[in-house]
Write a structure and sequence with these properties.
Number of strands: 14
Number of helices: 10
CATH topology of the largest domain: Alpha-Beta Plaits
Largest sheet: 5 strands, parallel
Number of domains: 2
Order of helices and strands: EHEHEHEHEHEEHEHHEEHEEEHE
Shape: elongated
Strand content: 15-25%
Radius of gyration: 25 Å
């Protein structure tokens, strides 16, 4: 799930007739990003690579018909939730029932009526947007607007598996806001919330690669995953984060300002099969404990025997 600005909703149009593609493109191009496929094989590839929000799928095509394409889409965990609207010249109840029974969400007949096409597509896109909002809320921490622990665990499982398959390094930072309880007691919980939001912004701005991400781990702890990063790269990120937080001023309601520091535990590994990701996190946590015990506002790396 993308935590940046929402992207324009997209539609994959699959039809072997250019005239049909032209009509649908004319109706939909202003509002949606469009992908085009003229056969089933290319449709499956585009769907896998781009994950469109909706597919308009012609039933009758050479080589692979729409029912076969839909069956293949349903087999894949990546594409099985993409809603599919069948488009066809078969204007009968039996054909419509057959299409819906195969897993399509709607049925549009040819020749196209512009208003019907637009209305049905818009209806299903509203459902897509509602589901996207619900999904985002379920995996986002409301205060910091970062992914939550649940989302982090899902991402870690995926990246850990990828690191094993591709024999890549993977690095982890666990970040703790120093003396946060004292800060809360001194300035009050609303100001403490403001501090957490401010450092969350620093963490997001410190990430330079698309695959890197940070989540709220719980309370005043945050966790940052750096797929494909070795120890040197992880330490560079950790020190950049630590220095940026130290240099950040957090304004108070009365016009004054405050500041904070963070302690960071770093762990970098090249995982092997059957090695659990839980140990990877635990070792980073031990490094964080060392950073806090040795004076705070510093970065510590996990070493064997900690």
């Amino acid at each position: 799930m993308d935590f940046n600005e929402p992207k324009k909703l997209s539609i994959l149009i699959v039809d072997d007739e250019k005239s049909n593609i032209d009509v649908l493109t004319h109706i939909l191009k202003e509002k949606y990003k469009l992908y085009i496929a003229k056969n089933g094989e290319s449709a499956l590839k585009i769907a896998r690579d781009n994950l469109p929000n909706l597919i308009l799928l012609d039933v009758i095509m050479p080589d692979m018909d729409g029912f076969e394409v839909l069956a293949e889409l349903k087999k894949s965990e990546h594409t099985n939730k993409i809603p599919v609207i069948f488009i066809t010249g078969q204007d009968s109840k039996e054909a419509e029932i057959n299409g819906l029974s195969k897993g399509a969400v709607d049925y549009i007949t040819k020749p196209f009526n512009n208003m019907i096409v637009e209305a049905r597509v818009n209806t299903h896109m509203k459902i897509v947007e509602q589901m996207r909002i619900i999904e985002r809320m379920s995996i986002m921490d409301e205060l910091t607007e970062l992914p939550n622990r649940r989302y982090f665990n899902d991402q870690l499982a995926r990246e850990w598996g990828r690191a094993i398959r591709e024999t890549l390094s993977i690095s982890l930072l666990i970040i703790d806001v120093d003396k946060f309880k004292t800060y809360n007691d001194t300035y009050g919980h609303p100001q403490g919330d403001k501090l957490l939001h401010a450092v969350a912004c620093v963490f997001k701005e410190s990430l330079k690669r698309p695959a890197d991400f940070v989540a709220r781990w719980g309370g005043e702890e945050f966790i940052m995953l750096l797929p494909g990063s070795d120890l040197e790269g992880a330490l560079n990120v950790a020190e950049r984060v630590r220095a940026s937080v130290e240099a950040t001023t957090i304004p108070c309601i009365d016009g004054a300002s405050t500041s904070a520091t963070v302690s960071i535990g770093v762990n970098s590994e090249r995982p092997i099969i059957h090695l659990p990701a839980a140990g990877f996190v635990s070792r980073a946590d031990k490094a964080l404990y060392e950073a806090k015990e040795s004076g705070r506002n510093r970065v510590c790396v996990y070493k064997e025997g900690m």
